[in-house]
């Protein structure tokens, strides 16, 4: 999923233990993207957990037109864009000899081209630099960009490209648009997609390996851990952080 947000002056919900999805929205109006009709329920579930205005938009980020459709829907609803989170990803596991052109292209189009096109389409709707700027572009890369495992050639290559794209945009965009561009690099995160692949690769065996390699208790992170890093970079006070990548892996991976 991609996410686009427009800041509003809304205080976060009170309570000792609010759901993190609510807390990490931090008062922003949120546009949640889903790529296919069967994901609408999941997108609505996320939206319904927020205490802030939101919409869910179906747009296939792997296509040429999908990114612009998403941006248009966001602007039509909220009028502007303050924060872009490029999170759409195609996770693929395949031997090099089994990686078809279609698999390679789908991975690159979703993970790399999609992020570029969403960003490109949204630039003119970011807060103008002449008015102080303050836009935030946050790309989700992965620790596999620098520490790949077997069967990850296409996926790791795409995430390496996102890491480089982040650094390039961090040089090119701020002088003109007054924004910042950063990345969050998750390690192993407990998502349905990952757990499905993990089951194929022998859950118990890998659990032992990963647990031994993670300094922080608990070998697997939660989506909320990644969301916290994203929301930190999206803060207005994070204006001096640009071109950075935050590792979110419990110390299993770092440069």
From TrEMBL:
The organism's lineage?
Eukaryota, Fungi, Dikarya, Ascomycota, Pezizomycotina
Q: Which organism is it from?
A: Colletotrichum asianum
**Family note:** Belongs to the short-chain dehydrogenases/reductases (SDR) family.
Biased-composition ranges, Basic residues, are 1-23
What is this protein identified as?
Short chain dehydrogenase
Any one GO MF term held by the record is:
oxidoreductase activity, acting on CH-OH group of donors
One Pfam family, short name please?
A: adh_short_C2
Output the superkingdom of the source species.
Eukaryota
Q: Which residues form the signal peptide?
A: none
Arranged from A to Z, the UniProt key words for this protein are:
NADP, Oxidoreductase
**The UniProt record lists the keyword Ligase:** no
* InterPro entries from the UniProt entry: NAD(P)-bd_dom_sf (IPR036291), Sc_DH/Rdtase_CS (IPR020904), SDR_fam (IPR002347)
Using the UniProt annotation, give all residue ranges assigned to the region (Disordered).
1-26
């Amino acid at each position: 999923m991609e996410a686009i947000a427009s800041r509003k002056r809304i205080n976060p919900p009170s309570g000792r233990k609010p759901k993190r999805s609510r807390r990490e929205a931090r008062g922003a109006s949120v546009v949640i993207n889903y790529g296919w009709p069967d994901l609408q329920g999941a997108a609505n579930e996320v939206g319904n957990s927020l205490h802030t205005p939101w919409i869910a938009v179906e747009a296939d980020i792997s296509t040429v037109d999908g990114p612009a459709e998403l941006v248009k829907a966001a602007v039509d609803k909220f009028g502007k864009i303050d924060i872009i989170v490029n999170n759409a990803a195609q996770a693929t596991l395949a031997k090099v000899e089994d990686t078809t052109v279609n698999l390679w292209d789908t991975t690159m189009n979703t993970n790399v081209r999609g992020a570029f096109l969403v960003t490109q389409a949204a630039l003119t709707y970011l807060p103008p630099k002449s008015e102080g700027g303050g836009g935030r572009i946050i790309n989700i890369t992965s620790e596999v960009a620098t520490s790949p495992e077997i069967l990850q050639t296409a996926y790791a290559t795409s995430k390496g490209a996102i890491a480089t794209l982040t650094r390039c945009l961090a040089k090119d965009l701020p002088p003109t648009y007054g924004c910042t561009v950063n990345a969050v690099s998750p390690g192993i995160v407990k998502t349905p997609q990952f757990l499905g692949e993990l089951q194929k690769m022998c859950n118990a065996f890998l659990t032992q390996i990963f647990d031994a390699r993670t300094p922080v208790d608990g070998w697997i992170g939660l989506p909320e851990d990644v969301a916290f890093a994203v929301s930190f970079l999206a803060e207005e006070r994070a204006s001096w952080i640009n071109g950075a990548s935050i590792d979110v892996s419990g110390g299993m991976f770092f440069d």
